[in-house]
Amino acid sequence: GLPCQSPKVSEEALSQYDLALFHLVNHAFFKALLFLAAGVVIHALNDEQDMRAYGALVQLLPFTYTMLLIGSLSLMAIPFLTGFYSKELIIASAYGNYSVSGHVGYWLSVLAALFTALYSTRMLYLTFYNRPNGGKDRYLSVHESPVIMAIPLVILAILSIFFGYFGQDAFVGAGSNFYGNALFQHPNHVLLVDTHFSVPLLYNLLPVVLPSIGSVLLLALYTFYPRSLISLISSKLGRSAYACLNQAYRFNLLYALITNKVLALAFYCSKTLDRGVLELLGPYGLVSLLLKASQNMATLDTGFVPHYALYFVLALISFVILTFQVNEPEYLLILIVRHYSNSQGIPALTTEQHDALIGCTLGDLKI
């Protein structure tokens, strides 16, 4: 879960990659134990995955309960279990950085450790200590895991208890620089030996004491004051908190707002490209263009001789422009004027008029 990932993220932010790798290895053992043991419980209850339908399984599944208890305690970083040796050192090194970011990381990690202890305690209570909430047929078919499933659980349980103690010297032991040349470390990162001696005792104990107190109080509320929890959940504050947590701090609404806009834009672009631009410029558009061009050209065939004469003149002008590459438009104007004069019987231009017409430009003509 997220609280389990926060220590590794904190160490990566503090450039303590050797310590983050140590916690990653430790985390693999007890988290794998929890997943496999949870699978045993689900299998024993006919694939039921809702914890609210569990309860009173401690006598029916004692071996699985022991495995889940070991994994949960190691996840909670209870002293002298595997999770304790990396998680406690991670949180202490965050405080030992003695910076604003380091202190923020420390308190966030302590808060994450508290939440980890609370949901682990809740999981154990609802599954093994609570009153039975499932059907009678499920409890009649409850059975422990076979030997082939129990062997991996035992191996992971042993590693979840002892690996942290025996593996700490190889990863983060005093004077150990095994990963110093393999992993980049920021020049300003805090040495672990400084963390051991510089962090006050109170801040070393807080990540252990606070989750332990929270677990004991939650277990006491579940056992002796269940109505107080019901009243708290039923209150306005409890409902608001539940709605906020159940909806992931309302981030889902923000994600939906963003994704809906993006999806709408993507749909519009897809529709425009696939059904608009591509059809217009593709084969369909080319065929439509040729059909429209042929229809427009067919409208030019009117049967009137003056229209044909106009077409002839336009074709002649185009021919002159394309064939002789007339770059000076005034010469083209002279040709048009001379042709018009001859057709109307107007006398030819005099030499002075001819020179004046050649000397003018289209920009000087007054139409």
UniProtKB/TrEMBL annotation:
Its EC number is 7.1.1.2. One of its GO terms (cellular component) is mitochondrial inner membrane. One of its GO terms (molecular function) is NADH dehydrogenase activity. One of its GO terms (biological process) is electron transport coupled proton transport. Its main location: mitochondrion. It catalyses: a ubiquinone + NADH + 5 H(+)(in) = a ubiquinol + NAD(+) + 4 H(+)(out). The keyword Transport applies. The chain crosses the membrane at residues 20-45, 57-84, 104-125, 146-166, 201-225, 308-326. Keywords: Electron transport, Membrane, Mitochondrion, Mitochondrion inner membrane, NAD, Respiratory chain, Translocase, Transmembrane, Transmembrane helix, Transport, Ubiquinone. Pfam families: NADH5_C, Proton_antipo_M. This is NADH-ubiquinone oxidoreductase chain 5. It comes from Paraglomus brasilianum.
